[in-house]
Amino acid sequence: MKLNEIAPQEGAVKKRMRVGRGIGSGKGKTCGKGVKGQKSRTGVAINGFEGGQMPLYRRLPKFGFSNHFAKDYSTVSLAQLQAAIDAKLLDAKAPITSKAIIEAGLAPKAKDGVRLLGNGEISAKVTLQIAGATATAKAAVEKAGGSVDIIVPQAKPVVRKKPIPGQK
What we know:
There is one protein chain. This protein folds into 2 domains: 18-58, no CATH class; 74-150, CATH 3.100.10.10. The protein has helices spanning 56-59, 78-86, 98-103, 135-143, and strands spanning 74-77, 96-97, 114-117, 127-130, 132-133, 147-150. The protein has a 3-stranded parallel β-sheet with strand order 1-3-5. A 3-stranded parallel β-sheet has the order 2-4-6. It contains 4 helices and 6 strands. The radius of gyration is 31 Å and the shape is elongated.
């Protein structure tokens, strides 16, 4: 087989329609767009336009709020943590960090850190070093003889390319 012999499978590629090439082509003159008006021309952007009437998306009230500064934690429950310890994915004797939890496959990625939720029960005595934990989760770990250390992930310093005018 040579590069010049490679071709797509029969029927996989459809030939494009050449419009505006005479009335005999079937798509000549108006190119299948009807006649005149805004929609027959290029650059049409009228989604939501209601002929000048106030559109529905502006008539309805706005609601909700999205906090762009809120922390987005990966969550792990007590039950998941206990199951990972039982399956020997985590070592209960060593301190369990966010990195160890992610490597064990309990959380898909770090995001802003790992937060422990109080769903389920834990019987292993563990030392957790994570970004956050609910009050019930912390109480359950301490009841089992373990401890939870809240470690705030360090923010990366902002490096400016140009100095701010007026500063040295």
